[in-house]
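Build the 3D complex.
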Amino acid sequence: MSMIHASVDSAIAIAEKRSGKIGAEFYAGRTRSMIERAFMAFKTSSWIIVLSGFVEPVFYLAAFGFGLGQFIDGVTDTAGNPISYAAFIAPALLATSAMNGAIYDSTWNVFFKMHFGKLYQTILQTSLGTLDVALGEISWALLRGLAYAIGFMAVMAPLGLIPSWWGILAIPGAVLIAFAFASIGMGVTSYLKSFQQMNWVNFFLLPMFLFSGTFYPLDIYPEWLQRVIEALPLWHAIQLERALTLGNISPDLLWHVLYFMVMIVGGLYFTTRRLNALFLR
Amino acid sequence: MIIARGLTKKYDDFVAVDGIDFEVKKGESFGLLGPNGAGKSTTMRMIASTSRRTGGELTILGKDPNKHGPEIRAHLGVVHQQDNHDGELKTWENLYIYGRYFGLSRAFLKKKVEELLEFAQLTEKRDVKVDQLSGGMKRRLTIARGLVNEPEILMLDEPTTGLDPQARHILWDRLFRLKEEGVTLVITTHYMDEAEQLCDRLIVMDKGKIMAEGSPAALIKKYSSKEVLEVRFGSKNNADAAKKIAHLGDRIEPLPDRILVYSEDGEKVLKQIHKLGLEPQTSLVRRSSLEDVFLRLTGRTLVD
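Done.
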């Protein structure tokens, strides 16, 4: 597709190609131009912010996994094999950093562009559609999420925290998780009007991080609370990543994948509708 | 190229555009003139396919913008009232990426961007971040950006608002060149001189409705006289003086700060005023303009 487009030098001819196709009123099939823009802007962005996304889970791993972990015995994987506490929380931290990265990109960055940079208004003057914008921003969040996941895995592996080769799949797993959170996050951001409201997002995320089976198994909670937590996305993310790095593979994992697929489709629909309502009204 | 029939835009209870009809032909320079809040920008946004109409018909190049937004936008260049550049990018990158949004190839854009930088007299500023450009430069960059996709219709919303006179003239010059190249221009403005300079034909809008339509010269001829005499007697005495000179000229228009007397010969009227024993503090005879047309049609001035 891209090869054919690249040789045409008329905006009209390019736009006509999608004429009459399903969704032509909100999708032009050129998400990559949004990603190209993100790369251009990224070149001049602050490296400290970029680096912090990588460093955060490593610090958590050092403090809790190797610090606190010294005092914790008797941790097992779902098959009952003994594992180190660090190996127990590392995949949870991977899942959490995928979530945080996606949320950061799809809330703070998007919020700024929506209200101050007016970037989306400008882009929607062109023949791009709202779904292109949504997918472009989300794809960028995913690329960053992918880089962070690879970075964190590169720290985990030599420390012996990924006992199974299935662990490789934790990288695409992290991307899937990031995709799901970014899809929803961008739609939610479109409702937020001020920086104060942006903090509500953290107000929701922090307890989810602490109590979703990140640092200990859920069975210490009463039954009803377990059910509530099992409905939350981070719990699914952690279960998926932990099963992959520890090699506890079962068909049940597909339920987690399905959970995120639904989140992605629903999130994209929601975000595209919101962009239409905001910028094409 | 553009056909509107009963075009309407409502926001909740507020009617921004109230059932207007107009047509824009190929190669024409079409103006929407009116004060702030007249519905010009809303009309522009509906044509630009970034705002959905709530009633009536709108066809742009044979297509309905509600269904074919991205396709129609491929034909358009849009220059908004505010310069909404991508502040994270440099001058040339702004032009380049905008072309990429249209799907244009890198090779094509490499040439096109330099050409447009030249056109906008920004070649020297190509590697500067856009935030560091002056107001006039930003405006020219916005216009250059609107041309990246070689549009058939260029839409300009208040193109020279906030610019100093010199920058305005440079801009007008650029727009004339585009017009000569056959680009259809759709311009909103609340500046009369701008409408007279740039528009072949225009509609005068007020409160979401069309008050009049025609070429600037025809409108002036129809709704005003050849010349206008402006006299000031001081704000206290104006009303009184207006009564005394009401019979002079074709028509008079008393405003709070001055009195306008419409006539074929302004100097002659001024002499008649002197004969009545009245001494205006200042007097000015000028050609009639679209400002007078607007005043006649709405009873209000354009810029308050």
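The two ends of chain A are 31 Å apart (CA to CA).
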